[in-house]
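Sequence, please.
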């Protein structure tokens, strides 16, 4: 991009932009992601030999397949125990079945954390899972209603939707900042690239829609008092929707960066 042709939104980095970038970078510093450098013609390339790809890095930080399974076990335990011990199964009193379900869910989350500790494996995902399960379990216990076990997750997801849409409105798309940290060495020069900027604007909206669908379905079941259905839906649709959205995001960004790399490459004689 030649001087004098920068998009208007790239005119001058505001204090708000700098703060947003620094906050994202500080958070992701804890993830120990590898930086990448950018070649003017070839685009991003690895700094050291055999560094993991962007997809591999994100998969590692999310826990991969194992993390997916471990995060689903406490929810599955809650659903199964609540169903098998309640009206559909052994016919225990509603609160009794609920307390057993809470115990099974929290117990399985603690067991996963203890197992990881015993094998000296990272426990970040397990700790996050225990915290989320504990909050939901507390609400379900206090209210005596199984559906409140899922309320924190529903509200958190809706909060993320609001943040994503808000970032688009103020022209600071969150997905762009995330990409800059994870795949662009912490640099946010995409903000001065009009094509990438527009791409991250609508990709951020795509993520907002995907999260809203996940939370919306669960919220509808919550209002309908279908506690067990919420757990089943949470397990069956949340991760497939996430995986599809992530795959689409990776494809969209690669399409733009690859096209710009070809345009920047010197013509062959």
């Amino acid at each position: 991009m030649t001087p004098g042709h920068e998009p208007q939104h790239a005119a001058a980095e505001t204090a708000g932009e700098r703060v947003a970038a620094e906050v994202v970078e500080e958070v992701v510093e804890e993830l120990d992601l590898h930086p990448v450098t950018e070649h003017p013609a070839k685009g991003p390339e690895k700094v050291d030999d055999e560094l993991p790809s962007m997809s591999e890095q994100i998969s590692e930080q999310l826990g991969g397949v194992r993390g997916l399974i471990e995060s689903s076990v406490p929810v599955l335990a809650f659903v199964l125990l609540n169903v098998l011990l309640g009206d559909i199964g052994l016919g225990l009193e509603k609160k009794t079945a609920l307390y057993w379900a809470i115990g099974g869910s929290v117990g399985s989350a603690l067991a996963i954390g203890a197992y990881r500790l015993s094998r000296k494996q990272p426990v970040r995902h397990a700790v996050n899972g225990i915290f989320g399960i504990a909050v939901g379990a507390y609400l379900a216990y206090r209210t005596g209603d199984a559906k409140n076990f899922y309320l924190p997750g529903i509200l958190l997801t809706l909060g993320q939707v609001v943040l994503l849409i808000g970032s688009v409105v103020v022209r600071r798309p969150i997905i762009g900042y995330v990409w800059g940290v994870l795949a662009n060495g912490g640099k946010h020069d995409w903000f001065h690239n009009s094509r990438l900027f527009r791409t991250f604007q609508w990709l951020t909206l795509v993520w907002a829609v995907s999260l809203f669908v996940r939370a919306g379905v669960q919220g509808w079941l919550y209002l309908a008092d279908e506690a067990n259905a919420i757990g089943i839906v949470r397990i069956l649709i949340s991760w497939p929707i996430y995986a599809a959205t992530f795959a689409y995001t990776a494809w969209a960004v690669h399409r733009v960066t690859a096209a710009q790399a070809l345009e920047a490459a010197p013509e062959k004689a």
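The chain is about 70% helix and 5% strand.
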